[in-house]
Design a protein that fits this description.
Layout lengths: L10 E3 L6 H13 L11 E8 L4 E5 L12 H12 L5 E9 L21 H14 L3 E5 L4 E4 L14
Parallel strand pairs: 4-5
Antiparallel strand pairs: 1-6, 2-3, 2-4, 5-6
This protein binds tetrahydrodeoxyuridine.
């Protein structure tokens, strides 16, 4: 029997350590949480995707009384980005989440302390664009620290790709 390891490298840093562009992308993701529609979970997620043409496309989670009909922030952003900019590569995605139900209180203390990580379905959806266009860097915001991963595939080893 063979055995092999699957490794992912995660960089950990503070907001101050980010480049101005990465910091801006994280701020866009935080801002996008304000546009979430999450009356059921009260968990407000924002995602911001940097496109190869320099545009930043934001998305937030949009819930529905019929729960499975809602979408996560990452997929909202990805589908919005791709439908408005077909054929344009995704370079980076930043994600942030807060728990307050009061948008006026979207200060630092309202954001999740640990880095927010995308769900499995969003990893699979984002991987599709990574296969099309190349690696997408991932910035996961938390008040305490930010995680940076080099690609979506590093978040989804042994992904479903062939059908
Ligand atoms: N959610 C996201 O927007 N992104 C994720 O990666 C995980 C979960 C949303 C879905 C739902 O609206 C709420 O967070 C609670 O699960």
């Amino acid at each position: 029997m063979k055995e092999f390891e699957i490794k992912s490298t995660v960089k950990e840093c503070s907001i101050e350590e980010l480049s101005p562009l990465d910091r801006h992308l994280v701020e866009c993701a935080k801002e996008a949480t304000l546009r979430a529609y999450a009356p059921f979970s009260k968990y407000y997620v924002g995602a911001a995707i940097l496109l190869d043409n320099g545009k930043i496309v934001e998305g937030s989670n949009q819930e529905n009384a019929a729960y499975p009909s809602g979408t996560c922030a990452e997929r909202t952003a990805a589908f919005f980005a791709s439908s408005a900019n077909p054929g344009v590569a995704f370079k980076k995605i930043a994600i942030a989440a807060r728990t307050s139900s009061d948008p006026s209180k979207a200060g630092k203390e309202e954001f999740q302390n640990k880095p927010v990580s995308p769900c499995g379905g969003c990893r699979q959806a984002l991987l599709e664009y990574e296969y099309l266009y190349g690696d997408i860097e991932v910035l996961l915001f938390g008040n305490d620290k930010i995680y940076i991963l080099p690609s979506i595939k590093s978040l989804l080893p042994l992904a479903f790709t062939d059908f």
